[in-house]
Design brief:
Order of helices and strands: HHH
Radius of gyration: 25 Å
Number of domains: 1
Oligomer: single chain
Distance between the termini: 57 Å
Mean pLDDT: 84
Number of strands: 0
Strand content: under 5%
Number of helices: 3
Organism: Amycolatopsis alkalitolerans
Shape: rod-shaped
Low-confidence stretches: none
Protein name: ESX-1 secretion-associated protein
Helix content: over 70%
Length: 80
């Protein structure tokens, strides 16, 4: 497990006495814990999307460079 993932996972839980008894009784504690869990999931989703985008850009760059090389080779053959 990476350091960032460990750090995030370690900060998902809230101390039971964070808001006292009133926080538990009113549902504030559970509501905040649920929100933190959803945000954690969202961060991982965005990170995955950014990673996928990076891979797509790298693939497009490689395709472009290959096409440019092939065009250059064809042009050189035509010119003799």
């Amino acid at each position: 497990m990476g350091a960032a993932k460990t750090h995030l996972a370690g900060n998902l839980s809230l101390p039971g006495n964070l808001f006292g008894d009133l926080g538990r009784e009113s549902g504030l504690h559970d509501s905040l814990a649920d929100h933190l869990d959803r945000m954690h999931t969202h961060v991982h989703s965005v990170a995955g999307s950014v990673h996928d985008l990076g891979q797509s850009v790298a693939t497009a760059k490689n395709d472009y460079e290959y096409d440019e090389h092939e065009f250059g080779e064809t042009f050189r053959r035509i010119l003799g």
